Amino acid sequence: MRKAAVPALALALSASVQVFADTGEFQTVDRQNITESNQADLPSVPQMEQGIQFGDVGDGRAIVWSRCDRPARMWVEYAFDEQFTDSKIIRGPHALEVSDFTARQELTGLPSGKDVYVKVWFEDLTNARNKSEPVTGRFHTVGKHEDIRFVWGGDTAGQGWGINEAFGGMKIYEAMRQVKPLFFIQSGDSVYSDSPIEASQEAENGQIWTNIVTPEVAKVAETLAEFRGRYKYNLLDANLRRFNAEVPQIWQWDDHEVVNNWSDAKDLDNDPRYTVKDVPLLIGRAARAFQEYAPLRPHTAEESERLYRKISYGPLLDVFVIDMRNYRGPNTANLQTTEGPETAFLGEEQLKWLEQGLKDSRATWKVISADMPIGLNIGDGVDEQGQPRWEAIANGDNGPAAGRELEIARLLRFIKHKRIHNIVWLTADVHYAAAHFYDPGRAQFKDFSPFWEFVAGPLNAGSFGPNTTDGTFGLQVVFAKAPPAGQANLSPYAGLQFFGEVNIDRKTRELTVDLKDLYGTSVFSKTLRAKPGR
């Protein structure tokens, strides 16, 4: 057990750090809270304690992300060999207090099918222009005639199961790194802002789980500093930092980046943990922290915080990243018979974007990266009339499409009538692994083509499930691996942590999905053959 003695706004890994001093040797110094008044107390050169990340790699572009411990300018050097022959150096943006000293730089004009080697360093904004030691990383741009391998999953540091160094840290990230994926889809719940992390807590069978802790994770996040602290906490893990330096990422969010089961109608009046009761304010602060720490490409000024987007990987794959949070109506009994503001889930504008994108796609496979599953019943308590209130799409009714199901029914009907083939849904959220086949022959709503949905997670959080299923879209549970009946919130000690791996063969165009456990062992595999035509 290690408890980090750092202030609430500290940008530190622990109470002390090995820094490269002017003498040319590493020295141990106390870490300091970074404010304008005590810049002189910092180590003599900038520090990059959170490492680097790559994001949204595709179409010859890539985002490079990092964070400094003080006001500084980001610099990026990249080349196509380890010796950095004929490298290009880019003068990046300033990292200032307003962004919590985070910065990102886009690389453009990247050739396909190449390894890209990257160095990042910061130069402080003093007259001395002190430079940090560079942090290095690499990634690969997908070639038009290459196989594609990627991984996905969600749910990190939830239910109080944080970074346990005695356990090996969040070692599922090392298991994912070992398969050498071209990219990783972070399917949501990248942090748990509503879940305090204590120094230790009891796990199953009387075992004790010990956590690294920081003041920012000791309570629910309410201030901007506390939301930022959740991301910095995860980056204390060496497995994650090593993974980030090699595997480009595609981020989306779900509820725990803000507060459990949030929508604009969330009510915190009866939750004593929160002194801030204004959910829109919490959403605003959480969104700011997410945008600062996610290695994603900012959208245009038209909608600067938009998260839904498409990333293309040549003729084999298009990834459609959707947002099931920002445009939803309130959580209700979800039984409305006609569409309206209360039944919105993706929202009209995003739905039209997705339909048009799927229609226009010429990639063999169209992966829809969703932050919640379609046909699992996910509850959110009861309403004032005592009716079950629902958090996701399904409503436990098993009947014709109703509530949020109406929007999804419209999407599925569009896909069928436009004869769009080879669509696969990937998601997380429910904290167990599953493979679902949606069969119109067994559904109440039948006007759609059959499709698969695969669920992976948690990456480092409590294990739950399995959820009950809704029959509206004919969900068939082909595989599920979850805690035994009567058990819930199992720690990573139980081994029920999962990620998904996808392989697309360039010759056969077959897509194979493996659901893998904490140690990289496949617990389920399914190969799908591509249908000809669109």
From TrEMBL:
Q: One Pfam match, by short name?
A: PhoD_N
- Top-rank taxon: Bacteria
Which interval of the chain is the signal sequence? 1-21
Residue stretches making up the PhoD-like phosphatase metallophosphatase domain = 152-515
Q: Keywords, A to Z?
A: Signal
* Domain annotation Phospholipase D N-terminal: ranges: 50-141
Q: Does the keyword DNA damage apply?
A: no
Q: Which InterPro entries match?
A: Metallo-depent_PP-like, PhoD-like_MPP, PhoD-like_sf, PhoD_N, Phospholipid_Metab_Enz
According to UniProt, the name of this protein is: Alkaline phosphatase
Its taxonomic path starts at: Bacteria, Pseudomonadati, Pseudomonadota, Gammaproteobacteria, Methylococcales
